[in-house]
Amino acid sequence: MKKFFTSESVTEGHPDKVCDAISDAIVDAVLSEDGDARCAVECCAAHDRVLIMGEISTSAKVDYERIARDKIREIGYTFGEFSADTCQVILSVHSQSPDIAMGVDESAEYREGGDVGDDDMLGAGDQGMMFGYACSETKGYMPLTLSLAHQLARRLSEVRKDGTIPYLRPDGKTQVTVEYDGKTPKRVDCVVVSAQHEEGAENLIKGDIMEKVIKAVIPGNLLDSETKYFINPTGKFVIGGPEGDSGLTGRKIIVDTYGGRCPHGGGCFSGKDPTKVDRSAAYMARYICKNLVAAGLCEEVELQVAYAIGVCKPVSVYVNSYGTGKLDDSVLSDIIVKEFDLRPAAIIKTLNLRTTKYAPTAVYGHFGKSSLPWELTDRTEDLRKYLTK
Asked: Among 171, 226, 244, 389, which has the highest number of CB atoms less than 10 A from its own CB?
């Protein structure tokens, strides 16, 4: 059955991604000095200023303004009203609420006593549900639509920075629609690229983007005479970034995850330390899903875990293998509970989340990057044993 699916991505200069990058740069700086710090820091950027706000409890001495300016400069905003050297940086940061800290420092299970250990001490930093996903569609176990959209967005930044297309500026968006036959990708049906540029480049950009970005990224066998292209469809994109549109940390949560292929719990990742299960449990869920698919237990899988604030054990675990599982979904759920420790402290240990650098996750997605610890497939042998039972 023919069907179409679309995913989008954005470049590092997109206003929301500027905010994500600053937030995660602050988290990295704080955790590098104080691994037990609590961070929930967000940014808002608009026109000529950036507001850094939220809660940070730490012994680290961090210059938030310098971090923000360095990140803005690294992204490429050294011009206009939102320039790294001239934009206003406003700080509104305070320590974590003691009411929240109490439940995180000592979980409900730990306070109640009984047969508990060190990993039972840390309670979830908030309530909520988190989702993981993996599929066999690409080598990275990610949806093809999102993988191609991320590659296009990353390519926009590459050709800007290496001078291949020197008139490009940092802001940009990409979108890819793939035609499927059932679950099998057949062709790319539509490509959308919007790239910020210098004044006067309007007549150059369509040809350059087609040849140096789209054709350099999307395999030729996926493109055909029926593929549709929309390159800067408004005709002009000179004013961009926070100068053209406001930005917020955590507003590109679908870009950050699976491009719409599975549900999202609603919580963002950037700006949070790993006691926040919005971040850590979503990473663990991806790790579990990827290992299930790599082990051959299914070809596609979605995992939901849910937590109560201050409680270390998840309140529910839900699995959907979309009919591709070699075992029933209820059996896969039992395997996950048996094989993976979903308590926050155990997740942090399993994935080394206190020492992980989060800046690389702030753009081009939090998943599908082989260098990240939750992308390892080191549990496949442990899981394959269930195929022979």
From this structure: 171
